[in-house]
Design a protein that fits this description.
Length: about 350
Protein backbone atom coordinates (compact mmCIF):
# COMPACT_ATOMS: atom_id res chain seq x y z
CA UNK A 1 0.00 0.00 0.00
CA UNK A 2 1.51 3.28 -1.05
CA UNK A 3 0.44 6.76 -0.11
CA UNK A 4 0.79 9.47 -2.76
CA UNK A 5 1.67 13.13 -2.25
CA UNK A 6 -1.84 14.54 -2.39
CA UNK A 7 -2.10 18.22 -3.31
CA UNK A 8 -5.90 18.23 -3.55
CA UNK A 9 -7.71 21.47 -2.71
CA UNK A 10 -10.39 19.50 -0.89
CA UNK A 11 -11.33 17.01 0.30
CA UNK A 12 -7.67 16.97 1.13
CA UNK A 13 -4.80 15.23 2.86
CA UNK A 14 -5.25 14.35 6.55
CA UNK A 15 -2.47 13.57 9.07
CA UNK A 16 -1.36 9.94 8.80
CA UNK A 17 -1.37 9.60 12.59
CA UNK A 18 -5.05 10.51 12.61
CA UNK A 19 -5.91 8.02 9.88
CA UNK A 20 -4.02 5.23 11.67
CA UNK A 21 -5.70 5.97 14.98
CA UNK A 22 -9.11 5.98 13.32
CA UNK A 23 -8.28 2.67 11.64
CA UNK A 24 -7.27 1.18 15.00
CA UNK A 25 -10.56 2.29 16.55
CA UNK A 26 -12.74 1.29 13.62
CA UNK A 27 -14.08 -2.06 14.86
CA UNK A 28 -14.14 -1.32 18.57
CA UNK A 29 -13.98 2.25 19.83
CA UNK A 30 -12.13 2.09 23.15
CA UNK A 31 -13.76 -1.06 24.41
CA UNK A 32 -17.37 -0.19 23.64
CA UNK A 33 -17.59 -2.92 21.00
CA UNK A 34 -18.65 -0.75 18.08
CA UNK A 35 -17.42 1.88 15.69
CA UNK A 36 -18.11 5.58 16.29
CA UNK A 37 -20.24 5.34 13.12
CA UNK A 38 -22.53 2.87 14.81
CA UNK A 39 -23.22 4.52 18.16
CA UNK A 40 -26.04 6.78 19.29
CA UNK A 41 -25.28 10.47 19.13
CA UNK A 42 -27.05 10.65 22.51
CA UNK A 43 -24.74 8.08 24.13
CA UNK A 44 -22.31 8.99 26.92
CA UNK A 45 -19.39 7.88 24.75
CA UNK A 46 -20.38 10.17 21.88
CA UNK A 47 -21.19 13.04 24.20
CA UNK A 48 -17.59 12.97 25.35
CA UNK A 49 -16.32 12.89 21.76
CA UNK A 50 -18.24 16.01 20.70
CA UNK A 51 -17.61 17.90 23.96
CA UNK A 52 -13.87 17.16 23.81
CA UNK A 53 -13.80 18.26 20.16
CA UNK A 54 -15.40 21.57 21.11
CA UNK A 55 -13.15 22.21 24.10
CA UNK A 56 -10.01 21.27 22.14
CA UNK A 57 -11.01 23.65 19.35
CA UNK A 58 -11.71 26.40 21.90
CA UNK A 59 -8.26 25.89 23.41
CA UNK A 60 -6.49 25.84 20.01
CA UNK A 61 -8.10 29.04 18.72
CA UNK A 62 -8.47 30.77 22.08
CA UNK A 63 -12.18 31.18 21.42
CA UNK A 64 -13.63 33.65 23.94
CA UNK A 65 -16.42 32.43 26.24
CA UNK A 66 -19.00 34.64 24.56
CA UNK A 67 -18.73 32.75 21.27
CA UNK A 68 -20.69 29.61 20.37
CA UNK A 69 -19.09 26.76 18.46
CA UNK A 70 -21.49 24.91 16.16
CA UNK A 71 -20.80 21.65 14.31
CA UNK A 72 -23.19 21.74 11.35
CA UNK A 73 -23.93 20.06 8.03
CA UNK A 74 -24.46 21.34 4.50
CA UNK A 75 -20.89 22.45 3.90
CA UNK A 76 -19.67 26.01 3.65
CA UNK A 77 -22.17 26.56 0.84
CA UNK A 78 -25.12 26.08 3.19
CA UNK A 79 -23.73 28.86 5.38
CA UNK A 80 -23.85 31.20 2.34
CA UNK A 81 -27.61 31.23 3.02
CA UNK A 82 -27.49 30.79 6.80
CA UNK A 83 -25.41 33.97 7.20
CA UNK A 84 -28.01 36.35 5.72
CA UNK A 85 -30.91 34.38 7.23
CA UNK A 86 -29.48 34.77 10.72
CA UNK A 87 -27.93 38.22 10.44
CA UNK A 88 -29.79 40.35 7.89
CA UNK A 89 -32.09 42.24 10.25
CA UNK A 90 -31.79 45.42 8.16
CA UNK A 91 -31.73 43.34 4.99
CA UNK A 92 -28.45 44.92 3.94
CA UNK A 93 -24.86 43.69 3.99
CA UNK A 94 -21.54 44.41 2.30
CA UNK A 95 -19.46 41.82 0.43
CA UNK A 96 -15.83 41.90 -0.70
CA UNK A 97 -15.56 39.89 -3.91
CA UNK A 98 -12.25 38.04 -4.13
CA UNK A 99 -13.19 34.91 -6.07
CA UNK A 100 -15.74 32.22 -6.81
CA UNK A 101 -16.65 31.45 -3.22
CA UNK A 102 -17.21 35.09 -2.29
CA UNK A 103 -19.25 35.50 -5.48
CA UNK A 104 -21.42 32.54 -4.59
CA UNK A 105 -22.01 33.83 -1.06
CA UNK A 106 -22.82 37.26 -2.54
CA UNK A 107 -25.43 35.88 -4.97
CA UNK A 108 -26.98 33.81 -2.20
CA UNK A 109 -27.27 36.90 0.04
CA UNK A 110 -29.06 38.77 -2.74
CA UNK A 111 -31.94 36.33 -2.33
CA UNK A 112 -32.56 37.70 1.17
CA UNK A 113 -31.80 41.40 0.99
CA UNK A 114 -29.59 44.07 -0.46
CA UNK A 115 -26.08 42.71 -0.85
CA UNK A 116 -23.66 45.48 -1.75
CA UNK A 117 -20.30 44.87 -3.43
CA UNK A 118 -17.77 46.81 -1.36
CA UNK A 119 -14.68 45.95 -3.40
CA UNK A 120 -13.62 43.38 -5.97
CA UNK A 121 -10.50 41.98 -7.58
CA UNK A 122 -12.35 40.59 -10.61
CA UNK A 123 -10.50 43.05 -12.89
CA UNK A 124 -7.30 40.98 -12.63
CA UNK A 125 -8.80 37.49 -12.38
CA UNK A 126 -8.82 37.67 -8.57
CA UNK A 127 -5.02 37.58 -8.43
CA UNK A 128 -4.86 40.04 -5.52
CA UNK A 129 -6.77 41.23 -2.45
CA UNK A 130 -8.32 44.67 -2.93
CA UNK A 131 -7.48 47.52 -0.57
CA UNK A 132 -10.00 47.25 2.26
CA UNK A 133 -8.80 50.14 4.43
CA UNK A 134 -11.64 52.49 3.45
CA UNK A 135 -14.58 50.50 2.14
CA UNK A 136 -17.95 52.18 1.43
CA UNK A 137 -19.51 50.52 4.50
CA UNK A 138 -22.71 52.16 5.76
CA UNK A 139 -24.23 52.06 9.25
CA UNK A 140 -27.30 50.17 8.10
CA UNK A 141 -25.27 47.17 6.97
CA UNK A 142 -25.79 44.14 9.17
CA UNK A 143 -22.32 42.78 8.44
CA UNK A 144 -19.28 42.87 6.18
CA UNK A 145 -18.42 39.59 4.48
CA UNK A 146 -15.09 38.23 3.26
CA UNK A 147 -13.70 34.94 2.02
CA UNK A 148 -10.43 35.06 3.95
CA UNK A 149 -8.42 32.57 1.91
CA UNK A 150 -9.36 32.13 -1.72
CA UNK A 151 -8.89 28.45 -2.42
CA UNK A 152 -9.16 28.69 -6.19
CA UNK A 153 -7.06 31.82 -6.82
CA UNK A 154 -4.54 31.40 -4.00
CA UNK A 155 -4.94 34.76 -2.27
CA UNK A 156 -5.29 35.48 1.44
CA UNK A 157 -6.26 38.58 3.44
CA UNK A 158 -3.10 39.47 5.42
CA UNK A 159 -4.95 42.25 7.23
CA UNK A 160 -8.65 42.20 7.94
CA UNK A 161 -10.83 44.89 6.34
CA UNK A 162 -11.81 48.00 8.26
CA UNK A 163 -15.52 47.21 8.72
CA UNK A 164 -16.24 50.61 10.32
CA UNK A 165 -17.80 48.97 13.32
CA UNK A 166 -19.96 46.47 11.47
CA UNK A 167 -19.58 42.78 12.32
CA UNK A 168 -17.10 40.86 10.21
CA UNK A 169 -18.21 37.51 8.78
CA UNK A 170 -15.47 35.32 7.30
CA UNK A 171 -15.46 32.10 5.32
CA UNK A 172 -12.19 30.49 6.44
CA UNK A 173 -12.75 27.07 4.85
CA UNK A 174 -9.30 26.84 3.30
CA UNK A 175 -7.25 28.52 6.03
CA UNK A 176 -8.99 27.10 9.12
CA UNK A 177 -6.42 26.39 11.87
CA UNK A 178 -3.50 27.19 9.56
CA UNK A 179 -2.25 29.99 11.84
CA UNK A 180 -3.22 31.81 15.05
CA UNK A 181 -6.38 33.91 14.86
CA UNK A 182 -7.92 36.62 17.03
CA UNK A 183 -11.52 35.38 17.14
CA UNK A 184 -12.69 38.55 18.88
CA UNK A 185 -12.18 40.51 15.65
CA UNK A 186 -14.98 38.57 13.98
CA UNK A 187 -18.71 38.29 14.46
CA UNK A 188 -18.80 34.97 12.66
CA UNK A 189 -16.07 32.62 11.44
CA UNK A 190 -17.08 29.53 9.54
CA UNK A 191 -15.52 26.89 7.37
CA UNK A 192 -16.16 23.57 5.73
CA UNK A 193 -13.68 21.18 7.34
CA UNK A 194 -12.70 19.15 4.27
CA UNK A 195 -9.88 21.52 3.34
CA UNK A 196 -7.76 21.61 6.46
CA UNK A 197 -9.52 19.91 9.34
CA UNK A 198 -11.41 16.72 8.58
CA UNK A 199 -13.71 14.76 6.30
CA UNK A 200 -16.37 16.45 4.15
CA UNK A 201 -19.77 16.68 5.76
CA UNK A 202 -19.00 19.00 8.66
CA UNK A 203 -18.98 22.79 8.69
CA UNK A 204 -17.90 24.60 11.84
CA UNK A 205 -19.49 27.97 12.63
CA UNK A 206 -18.09 30.11 15.44
CA UNK A 207 -20.47 32.92 16.26
CA UNK A 208 -20.56 35.64 18.88
CA UNK A 209 -23.42 35.09 21.31
CA UNK A 210 -25.34 38.29 20.54
CA UNK A 211 -25.52 37.21 16.87
CA UNK A 212 -27.21 33.94 17.84
CA UNK A 213 -30.71 35.33 17.61
CA UNK A 214 -34.37 34.47 17.67
CA UNK A 215 -35.31 37.22 15.26
CA UNK A 216 -33.97 35.57 12.13
CA UNK A 217 -35.50 36.23 8.71
CA UNK A 218 -39.05 34.87 8.35
CA UNK A 219 -39.01 31.46 6.69
CA UNK A 220 -35.58 30.47 8.02
CA UNK A 221 -35.62 26.68 8.35
CA UNK A 222 -35.30 25.45 11.94
CA UNK A 223 -32.11 23.62 10.99
CA UNK A 224 -30.48 26.77 9.57
CA UNK A 225 -31.23 28.91 12.59
CA UNK A 226 -27.98 29.07 14.57
CA UNK A 227 -29.95 29.41 17.80
CA UNK A 228 -31.54 26.00 17.29
CA UNK A 229 -28.10 24.46 17.04
CA UNK A 230 -26.55 26.57 19.82
CA UNK A 231 -29.36 25.75 22.27
CA UNK A 232 -28.88 22.05 21.58
CA UNK A 233 -25.09 21.81 21.65
CA UNK A 234 -25.06 20.92 17.91
CA UNK A 235 -27.25 17.91 18.76
CA UNK A 236 -30.68 19.21 17.65
CA UNK A 237 -30.77 16.33 15.21
CA UNK A 238 -28.21 13.66 14.37
CA UNK A 239 -24.95 15.49 13.64
CA UNK A 240 -22.27 14.23 11.24
CA UNK A 241 -20.97 12.05 14.10
CA UNK A 242 -18.04 10.35 12.45
CA UNK A 243 -16.79 13.53 10.80
CA UNK A 244 -16.82 15.40 14.11
CA UNK A 245 -14.89 12.52 15.71
CA UNK A 246 -12.16 12.83 13.05
CA UNK A 247 -12.07 16.63 13.45
CA UNK A 248 -11.53 16.04 17.17
CA UNK A 249 -8.52 13.86 16.39
CA UNK A 250 -7.12 16.51 14.07
CA UNK A 251 -7.50 19.13 16.85
CA UNK A 252 -5.42 16.88 19.13
CA UNK A 253 -2.86 16.34 16.37
CA UNK A 254 -2.51 20.11 15.90
CA UNK A 255 -2.13 20.63 19.66
CA UNK A 256 0.57 17.94 19.78
CA UNK A 257 2.39 19.64 16.90
CA UNK A 258 2.79 23.08 18.39
CA UNK A 259 -0.77 24.39 18.15
CA UNK A 260 -1.60 27.15 15.70
CA UNK A 261 1.82 28.77 16.19
CA UNK A 262 3.37 25.45 15.21
CA UNK A 263 1.09 25.16 12.17
CA UNK A 264 1.98 28.69 11.07
CA UNK A 265 5.69 27.95 11.28
CA UNK A 266 5.35 24.69 9.32
CA UNK A 267 3.08 26.32 6.75
CA UNK A 268 5.37 29.30 6.24
CA UNK A 269 8.35 26.99 5.74
CA UNK A 270 6.50 24.87 3.21
CA UNK A 271 5.11 27.85 1.29
CA UNK A 272 8.55 29.51 1.21
CA UNK A 273 10.05 26.40 -0.42
CA UNK A 274 7.45 26.42 -3.19
CA UNK A 275 7.23 30.17 -3.74
CA UNK A 276 10.98 30.68 -3.84
CA UNK A 277 11.24 27.95 -6.45
CA UNK A 278 8.46 29.62 -8.49
CA UNK A 279 10.23 32.97 -8.22
CA UNK A 280 13.48 31.53 -9.56
CA UNK A 281 12.05 29.16 -12.17
CA UNK A 282 12.09 30.11 -15.84
CA UNK A 283 9.29 27.66 -16.66
CA UNK A 284 6.84 27.88 -13.75
CA UNK A 285 5.31 31.14 -12.53
CA UNK A 286 3.05 31.93 -9.58
CA UNK A 287 -0.14 33.76 -10.57
CA UNK A 288 -0.75 35.84 -7.43
CA UNK A 289 0.59 39.22 -6.29
CA UNK A 290 3.34 38.43 -3.80
CA UNK A 291 1.90 40.38 -0.89
CA UNK A 292 -1.39 38.47 -1.09
CA UNK A 293 -0.07 34.93 -1.50
CA UNK A 294 -1.86 32.18 0.39
CA UNK A 295 0.09 29.76 2.57
CA UNK A 296 -2.40 27.04 1.68
CA UNK A 297 -3.19 27.14 -2.04
CA UNK A 298 -0.46 27.86 -4.55
CA UNK A 299 -1.57 28.29 -8.18
CA UNK A 300 1.05 28.36 -10.92
CA UNK A 301 1.35 28.11 -14.71
CA UNK A 302 3.92 27.56 -17.41
CA UNK A 303 2.13 29.91 -19.79
CA UNK A 304 1.57 27.05 -22.24
CA UNK A 305 -1.54 24.90 -21.80
CA UNK A 306 -0.05 21.88 -23.54
CA UNK A 307 3.02 22.04 -21.31
CA UNK A 308 0.80 22.40 -18.22
CA UNK A 309 -1.03 19.23 -19.24
CA UNK A 310 2.23 17.39 -19.88
CA UNK A 311 3.55 18.44 -16.48
CA UNK A 312 0.38 17.35 -14.68
CA UNK A 313 0.45 13.95 -16.40
CA UNK A 314 4.14 13.42 -15.57
CA UNK A 315 3.62 14.53 -11.96
CA UNK A 316 0.64 12.23 -11.51
CA UNK A 317 2.63 9.28 -12.86
CA UNK A 318 5.36 10.11 -10.34
CA UNK A 319 2.93 10.14 -7.40
CA UNK A 320 2.21 13.88 -7.09
CA UNK A 321 -1.55 13.94 -7.49
CA UNK A 322 -4.39 16.47 -7.76
CA UNK A 323 -2.18 19.25 -9.10
CA UNK A 324 -4.59 20.34 -11.82
CA UNK A 325 -5.80 23.92 -11.33
CA UNK A 326 -9.48 24.67 -10.77
CA UNK A 327 -11.57 24.21 -13.90
CA UNK A 328 -12.23 27.98 -14.01
CA UNK A 329 -8.54 29.02 -14.04
CA UNK A 330 -6.52 26.19 -15.59
CA UNK A 331 -2.82 25.66 -14.95
CA UNK A 332 -1.72 23.98 -11.73
CA UNK A 333 -2.48 24.42 -8.06
CA UNK A 334 -0.68 22.80 -5.15
CA UNK A 335 -2.70 22.85 -1.95
CA UNK A 336 -0.30 22.44 0.95
CA UNK A 337 -2.58 22.27 3.96
CA UNK A 338 -1.49 21.56 7.57
CA UNK A 339 -1.24 17.82 7.00
CA UNK A 340 1.06 18.05 3.96
CA UNK A 341 4.56 17.35 5.32
CA UNK A 342 7.49 19.55 4.34
CA UNK A 343 9.00 16.48 2.62
CA UNK A 344 6.04 16.45 0.22
CA UNK A 345 6.67 20.04 -0.84
CA UNK A 346 10.42 19.44 -1.14
CA UNK A 347 9.78 16.39 -3.30
CA UNK A 348 7.38 18.36 -5.51
CA UNK A 349 9.88 21.18 -6.00
CA UNK A 350 12.60 18.65 -6.85
CA UNK A 351 10.27 17.07 -9.40
CA UNK A 352 9.42 20.47 -10.93
CA UNK A 353 13.08 21.39 -11.14
CA UNK A 354 13.95 18.09 -12.84
CA UNK A 355 11.05 18.52 -15.26
CA UNK A 356 12.20 22.04 -16.13
CA UNK A 357 15.81 20.93 -16.71
CA UNK A 358 14.68 17.98 -18.83
CA UNK A 359 12.58 20.28 -21.00
CA UNK A 360 15.31 22.90 -21.34
CA UNK A 361 17.67 20.40 -22.98
C1 LIG B 1 -14.45 24.56 -0.65
C2 LIG B 1 -14.91 25.91 -0.26
C3 LIG B 1 -16.28 26.22 -0.12
C4 LIG B 1 -17.37 25.24 -0.43
O1 LIG B 1 -17.41 24.25 0.52
P1 LIG B 1 -18.54 23.14 0.54
O2 LIG B 1 -18.33 22.52 1.87
O3 LIG B 1 -18.30 22.25 -0.61
O4 LIG B 1 -19.85 23.84 0.44
C5 LIG B 1 -16.61 27.49 0.29
N1 LIG B 1 -15.67 28.41 0.58
C6 LIG B 1 -14.37 28.15 0.44
C7 LIG B 1 -13.37 29.21 0.77
C8 LIG B 1 -13.94 26.90 0.02
O5 LIG B 1 -12.63 26.64 -0.10
Amino acid sequence: MGRVWNFSAGPAVLPEEVLREAADEMMDYRGCGMSVMEMSHRSKVYDKIIKDAESDLRALMGIPGNYKVLFLQGGASQQFAAVPMNLMKNRKAGYVITGQWAKKAFSEAKMYGEAVQLASSADKTFSYIPDCSDLPVTDDMDYVYICENNTIYGTKFKTLPDTKGRDLVADVSSCFLSEPVDVSKYGVIYGGVQKNVGPAGVVITIVREDLVRDDVLPGTPTMLKWKTQADNGSLYNTPPCYGIYICGKVFKWIAANGGLEGMKKRNEEKAAILYSFLDSSRMFKGTVEKKDRSLMNVPFVTGDEALDAEFIAAATAAGFVNLKGHRTVGGMRASIYNAMPKEGVEALVQFMDDFEKRKAK
